[in-house]
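Worked example (supplementary).
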Amino acid sequence: MNPVDLLGLGLLGLRTRPGRAALSGLGIAIGIATMIVVTGLPASGQAALVERLSALGTNTLQATAQPDVQPPAPLPESAVEMVRRIGPVTGASAVANTHAAVRRNDRTEPSGLTALAARLDLPAAIQARVRSGAWLNAATANFPAVVLGSVAAARLGVTDLPRGAAAPQVVIGDRRFTVVGILGPTPLTPDIDRSVLVGWPAAKSELGFDGHPTVLYVRSDEAQLEAVRDVLAETISPERPGAVTVTRPSDALAAKRATESSFSVLFLALAGVALVIGGIGVANTMVVSVLERRSEIGLRRALGATRGQIRGQFLTEAVVLAGAGGLAGTGLGLAATVGYAAWQGWPVVIPAGPAGFGAGGAVVIGVLAGVYPCVRAARLAPRAALS
Amino acid sequence: MTLVSVGHASVRYPGGVTALDDVSLDIDRGELTAIVGPSGSGKSTLLTVIGTLDRPTSGTVRIGGQDVATLRDRRLAALRAREIGFVFQQFHLADGLSAAENVATGLLYAGVPRRHRRERALHALERVGLADRARHRPRELSGGEKQRVAIARALANGPSLVLADEPTGALDTATGRTVLDLMRRLNEEGTTIVLITHDRDIAAALPRQVEIRDGRIVSDVRR
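After joint prediction of all chains, the assembly is encoded as:
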């Protein structure tokens, strides 16, 4: 029998019982739609993160002195200038922990924020944006002036610096510092968000800071990043490169995201369950339709259908039913994913695996759900039509 | 020339019911035979055995000299598709298909290519006088028209044997008579027909009457 005739036979049962066909196809559709959504949403979220990370700059490296090494090995004062001599490095800056306590005023407890000495080139190196006021300059860096990180600003109750109003002050160590600026959030360097930043010379004169940087931020040509990373520790501390830890902040964010997405395995399992239930729905429809259509089967046998042709008809029907459900589910899942991603402003990423699995899996389920009923149908005695 | 030859055929069902008991019957080509008997007499069983829809528990059935017991499913199906046409009391038409499509279903299994099926179905409908009903669905047809569609389906392939199981059973007398007239005309055109009925008047109008009771043939009369 040619495939067109077989398809015609397979569609016959669905055409004459559209309501039931739609319901059992729906089971498959929901299963596959869920599967696509639970894989498509994390993938789209991941893509959005990667996009955001590259906007932030995945070309930033961070070098810190290892804590707890004996004898202590602070980063050299000239570290930034040395790092700048590495060819592909496009920018470098540093901050240093002054270990001074930060308070809102002299009557409050220490806030737990960190007071950092910052070089003037810091915002360029970590791509920080000044939200309000201004960054330190050559003049204010020498005086008790401070710029607040975004979290620090909220915690100290300084959310805005209106022009013309009296500048608020905070207490660092035992000195009063005037707030001149507030930074926007810097997702790659969350430590900066929780810090208040004072000029390098001011830290030395006002807070007794020794001049050794604690964290170096290094930007380089993206393609050369690994090469820079390899030589960074030796460049900063030629005698004891092992005492310098080099990390890539964007990696930490990506890793954090990866742990979050392991949740989706659970949802994937749920989608699998939905798919199985959908398959059982198709099997049920097929079993019932074999029972109901005994006389049709008998008639077809009387008209000269072989057992194989009866099997083919019912199997085709099951495959068409599941296939249509799979197709609808794939469409539904794609629409839901695209819609949600658009709403979140994410790029749309649908892993080809699950989408393919959706369509292919539906056909497999159709075959599995159809095999038993169609074997039964073929085994019916042809005389059933006469009774 | 013998078309159907049933030799000492018995059909026994599990539980000791004997539906057919040592029946022998020869039917020649071109005959119009009535098998008559009360319900439960075994006449339908005899028809299913002749039509190869069931195998006798013992005995032989030959169609055109071929012992059907030796045929596998595929050959048997081909025999039913090409040589035998069935007409049932309950018509057995598919509701979702037009009259022409119902007739074409009979051609599908005979391996008639798609492009010839419609044409041959229309021709068969013409033979039963329903050319103008080709596009109608079964529910749009009267009982007599439905039975004529079913007869057209049985005829579409030009089978050598048509088996009709109470073809007038679901029809009123007048409609039944037109169906019988159609059967008689088809027989005159050369088709061998075996017709089951419980109605002695109908049987009496046909050239040969085989009377069956309790699974045995009690009389076989040719006029």
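Two points are worth noting when inspecting this output. Strands of chain B lie at 2-13, 17-28, 32-36, 58-63, 66-67, 84-87, 161-165, 192-197, 208-213, 216-222. Helices of chain B lie at 43-50, 73-83, 99-108, 114-127, 143-155, 173-188, 200-204.
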